[in-house]
Amino acid sequence: MTRSLRQRSFDLLLDQSSPYNRHFEILFGVFDVLSVLTIFFETGLSSAPGTVIARSHIFEWLELFFTLVFSIEYVLRAISTPNPLRYIFSFWGIIDLATTIPLYVFWLWPNIGGEYVVIWRAMRAIRALRILKLLRLMPTLNSFWQAVVEARHQLFLFYFFIGIVMVVAGALMYGIEGPVHGFTTLGVSVYWAIVTVTTVGYGDITPHTTAGRIVASILILIGYSVIAIPTGLITSQVTKDMENRRHSRSCIHCHHTGHDSNARFCKCCGHRLPMS
Known about the structure:
Elements: H1 2-13, H2 19-45, H3 52-55, H4 58-80, H5 84-88, H6 91-108, H7 112-115, H8 117-125, H9 139-150, H10 152-176, H11 186-197, H12 210-248
Helix pairs in contact: 1-4, 2-4, 4-6, 6-8, 9-12, 10-11, 10-12
């Protein structure tokens, strides 16, 4: 019976080829969205304690329901996986555990509801990360993530270079403007450089000298490349991945390649194409 329970739990929660797994992933994704929306409604109605919903215990019952659902899912995933410790200490295992413990923490530490209610609600909002599991059901997003992974070395070198530019620009502004114009420390100067190169421009710190404005103008021009270069790298990887998929689908009968990703039959001989 124990083996049957583990096998059924594995088929429902972990087997990516099982259609039941996809249905349960979507179901738990809906629960994740509803639980996060509940927190938004709860925080919105907390400022109006006189309303009927605020005076009722509906949010407490909803939190109990979501905690029960996520707790059962976590236990089933832990007992059905071939290596429970690997799942427990994995990224998704830690996220799943973090989404189940807020109510238990509240029971063990009741004062958190009154003194640290913001922290408690923030712990519950972590459930939004569980929605990322649905990315496995979206081939397009999987291709995008794979493109990011393949371009990670170029992205790392690019942002490492940008980090050096930020430090150099911050040091220049710290020396040019100085504390008189708001550049009190090197950290504040680097913060200004980052805000400027990303074209955000909060306006809390601005250069007043001619040399400082020249440095700011150069950073603003660099900001365009900060947006364009990573986008180009990821786009090229996505295009390369799509082309590889097109040429990887070969007709068994005539060996023709270059079919569309959603094509079911060969465009040359008409025979059925393999699924992948």
